[in-house]
Batch of 2 targets.
Target 1
Amino acid sequence: MANGLIRCENLWHIYKTGKVVALQDINLTIQAQEILGVIGQNGSGKTTLVKHFNGLLKPTSGRVIVGGVDTARKKVQELSSQVGYVFQNPNHQLFARTVEEELEFGPRNLKLSDEEVIERREKAIEFFNLNPYRKLHPYRLSFPVRKLVGMASIYTMQPAVFILDEPTTGQDHVTTRIVYRLIERLREDGFTVICVSHDMILLAEVVDRILVMRNARLIADATPREVFADLQLMHSTHITPPQITELSLRLRESTLQKVCLSVKEMVETIQDVMSGSRPTQSFNN
Amino acid sequence: MQGVAIPISMVPGNSVLHRLNPLPKLALAIGVLIFSFATRNPALLGIVFAIGLMLVTIGKIWKAYLRVVMILFPIYLTLIVLQSIAPAFPRPWTPIVGFGPFTIYQEGIYSGVSMLARILCMTTYALIMIQTTHPSDLFTSLQKIGMPYVLNFILTVTLQLLPIIQSEFAIVLSAQKSRGMKGTGFGAILPSMVPVFVGAIERVQQLSISLEARAFGSSGRKTSFRDVSMRVKDYIALVLSLVFPILLTTWVVLDKSLDWSRSMVFPPTLSIILVSSCAIGFVVYFIIAVSYVLRV
Amino acid sequence: MKNQQPIVQISNLFFTYPTSTIPALKNINLTINEGEYVSILGLNGSGKTSLLLTLNGIIPNMIMGEMEGMVVVDGKNTDDYPVREMAKVVGMVFDNPEFQLSQMTVAEEIALGLENLGIPYKDMHNTIHQVLEIVGLEGLEERSPFSLSGGQQQRLSIASALAMRPKILVMDEPTSNVDPIGKEEIFRVAEQLNREHGMTVIMAEHEVEVMAAYSDRIIVMSNGEIILNGTPTEVFGQVNTLNQMGLRVPQVTELACRLDQKRIVPFYGQYPVTLEQADAALRAELGCRKV
């Protein structure tokens, strides 16, 4: 899509209560099949920003265009078939008696036929591997599985864009990896995924573009490698890169000449250095 | 859904009333409550109300006080209008003048005015107590005169959790709207309420474990962080707060001549002006309120 | 600084929840010495929380179930003492910052425990001020706990626990629902309490990089059992075992393991577990290979 799936034009958001500027002159374009990460401290505006994408918040001035439509004229419910928002705490969404019913809620709200509803439900169960849980009460499930059900219940709406609010918070090592893989598969299937997260490994290894928010402003819009290599940026927003990236940054000048985003990458880089077959490479790859 | 913060809470301040122990203020509020129900005499109620307004001035809580009183404003107006044409009072009724298809009665206006005075009295003294007293101080003093500790705790926690549950509810509504749920109607009840209820239950479960881990439920003497000792002036205030309402109430109950219900006479023009201005006022208020809600 | 006196002794512990047939804790034998900083690692459902709840007697006194074996904390058998007694020795902080709070002000939240212990009113203010200083929340006495950030709320819960003057601070995934700055604050307070005040710290967590830097010992649990128990270097050195269990090791350790196994850089089985160790080791190796 030439104009971008989501576009923000001079977006400002000011909370009426305290005259607090939550977003200051945001301009950005998001294309299809991107995986974006949005990072920033509490109060930086990162959650405020993504809430404009599905209409939960409306601009005070400026515009947000989703799929060619100005969100200011649309209700959240109307935008929900295009932009899905998975809340951080699945408990805020789950209410049905079985996982199956929970998954059917979204499509039914879209007024789809019974066959379509069931078809979408089954697709979600398959994608998220929820078959063993389908007849169970959502509140009988462990927290990580509830989070998956939360994601699946937005998946059944088949929105072009998924917004995930802290998808790996509260997860253990295994379920975290499951979420990473799910995000990658979503992109493979044609969706755009926007993650608001402070999970550095997610941002380094899964995401292809990072938006950095600070004090209501978008202060950086770049690849993970560029963002983590920018020490001043990291310092000013109190963000620490993943341990492996920090190590590569420390060794960069002396030997590595590269900012590594994963253990695998670092192994390969060191291997090249050790075998002497490594030409000088700029670390801005 | 932005919850309207009902301003029924303490107003920070350092007035004489703020520094007074909660018990006299509570006693006064209860005393006035009993007195208000013991009589309909508008003059007496009016005097007690006026004294209340003086206390509001002493406590410097006018802004917060008026905010609550104004919420009840449309009720006052409807009260007068409805009572005037259909008194909550035993017949016979004495008509004053016709008002369209209705008739305004003496007893009606009397009833409306005295009910209004009654509401204003009770509200004023209740607000004087609430807005100059820290809830924890109040509960702790009640505990000292015998209320069980657990009740104190439950009340404190409930006060804390109400605004939290309110904001949880707002979050749940956003979450469900993001799944296409229409905000109103039968289909919105379960998806909005279940997550809030379950959330509240899970919260209380965790809270009870945390409390247990901090020795909650120990028997034995419990001390208190809040200093609610009674000083001399508190005792004096307490005595006054008990004595005056009791005296007033006894007088009003015993002296039948204070029952002016059959003896007050309202001139016809005054009655019409009163009722119609209340009616118009109510309609205007209603229009303003509805347009505000719709615009939001 | 750390004496070798055991403060926690668990022998042959089995525990099954009433609604289950599978034991949540199996054959637990564990000794923790006073002043140690012990971290517990394991997947959800591995038994970490259940183990922690036995330390102050919530299991089995508040959460009923079938328990065999013995848990002795500071010389007291948890079977014989009510939770409110154990609360004087063991302070506990849980994973949801907000759910642990109930009072109107920070000071009252801390005072809650003191009230329950019958501490005289005049001593309360001192204690409250002291613990607020330790966790870095001085000056916030009159704030509502619900207006604090997640990191601040957890530090408040730590302060509330500290007010009871425990010897052991037990924390169950205290940073899992907290932002990065808050995480750092919490880990810093725990480390400070351990290093400067000799507090025994027992923490269940997923942040392996931080665990490696601060812990004296790491315990790995799976399916209710203790699988590994040793220093960070010993435990995280078992990269393959942990990976098979689905657990991650610090990234630098994984790096060293792979470099070692692929014979790119030799580590002779001694892998670094912290950034500093890895930095030093690799600089030495790569230093002579400057491009």
Target 2
Amino acid sequence: MSLDLVANVVIAGVLTGLVYGLMALGLSVIFGVVRVVNFAHGEMMTIAMYATTVLFAALKLDPFLCILPVAAAFFVFGYAMQVGLVNPFITRPEHSQFMLLVAVAIIMVNALLMIFGPDARNVQVDYQLESFEIGKILIDKARLYSAGAAVLAALGLFAFFRYSLIGKAIRACADNYLGARVVGLDVKRLYALTFGLGSLCVAVAGCAMVLLVDVTPALGPAYTLLAFVIVIVGGLGSMGGALLGGVLIGVSEALAGLFIVPSAKSMFSFGLLILVLLFRPQGLLGRK
Amino acid sequence: MRAHAALAVLAVVLLALPWFAGSYALSVATLILYFAYTGQAWNVMMGFAGQLSLGHAVYVGVGGYAAGALFFHYGVGPWAGLWLAILLCVALGLVIGFLAFRFGISGVYFALLTIAFAEFTRIGFDHLDWLGGPGGMFLKVAQRDSIDLLNFRGPPAMYYYAILALTAGAFALCFLLLKSRAGYYWQAIRENEEAAQALGINTFRWKMLAVAISSAMTAVSGVFFAFYYNNLFPEQIFHISRSIEIILGPIIGGVGTLFGPILGAVVLTVLSDGITEGLAALGWEIPGIKQVFYGIVLLAVIMFLPNGIWPALARRLGLHK
């Protein structure tokens, strides 16, 4: 096996991993602030992917242009979901929150199945077949652009949380719930904004991911698990950790597909998850 | 008194069911009891001791495959396989429990650890050719009308009585457990682990006991599953949707209550079958529509009855607790 092949596979894994990372970033932001694990996360990702295929088929809109309408719709959807469904569950026990989001996930997967059927859908644009050549290294254009979009979205979110007043207020809620209320922050509204932002990450990741894989309704639960693995490995609630975790999982999946059977690839992800949970439960970049 | 009379009537109806119910009703009743039993097993860990496991399918799967493989490869019946299943599942449960509790993993993290173990095992079994791999393992089905107790082969009524006995046994066991020292310690740990520890309870040991009992009970349900359905696929038996299916009943019925898992299993199975029938009658047979309705009902129950149906019903009926 040549070194070039391995290099190619690793680069593809890193780029796909960045898109995974953005998806997981959404989960991490929601958990970090609202302290609710979104068990419908992967299902939301597939909804964004289907939305992109529909816009592409109907309007011939490039998937990267689809990001704007899909992300806007998802922000509103996430905001509404937090206000309508999740807020009343904030103080309930974990298994109750879990049930709520599992019910939402069941509805989402099967609504997609009803509307689109079980067959795979995709988008086809010409740059999917093209690639950049650097020596013997080939980089798929679509994959590079997708990773670029994911990184831009993640940077935007970092900047929002670091510099904007609302971002700082949201971080204050995450750090100290009681303190945030004492200084007069509208915590419920900030939670809703956070869920909206987390959904927005998923939307961007979904628009980018549809260029790389075909979408089926069954992909939803698999992505939910993948997002869990990534955020735990990176550190639940840590933003940089989510991206790092995404890249690690992307590369390990790609290498497992190359050296062992492709169907065993997620076994390594779950193995990695178990090891991280045991030896560094706060995640690679998480704080205690 | 009225409650005792109601229980006696229920027992008579359940015992006589195979005589008047058709084969379809009997299979539904068997399914309800299967979920009631498995839910009761999960409830020991979550409802009593407060440890949220989202990977209970791993015990059903390992238990089912252990007894199934002994029968498939060596023709050894489930009475021996049962012990192997229990042994393996308790060992697995104790490993997961030891790692989690020693390393201080709790809450959401514990739940995710149990999912990770179940998924890891699922993919592992997919690559074990000795157990059939993804193509599944099929147990030989003998004559359906003669009863072969030694190999647990027989007509549907035999399986019905077996799972009825298991459910009744699990109910009695849980009743006794709740009244025992372990039951009180578990509830103390569930409500406030630090306080329990401060009172001198060795929380590690009692949590491990809960995991051991729960995994042993679930192993038995795996053996039943293997010999009732006669086929095992890693993709199905270990899948996270199976783990969710197991815990929906007790959560809908009432976590930590004795009747919750049973009531939840009845409500969910009847609901699921009712939706199927109703949609078929209306002629709406689009794939996925049934689960959408199911999800909406789940959502409604969890929103309006946060503690489950049983506590609300018991209050309405004037039964205390």
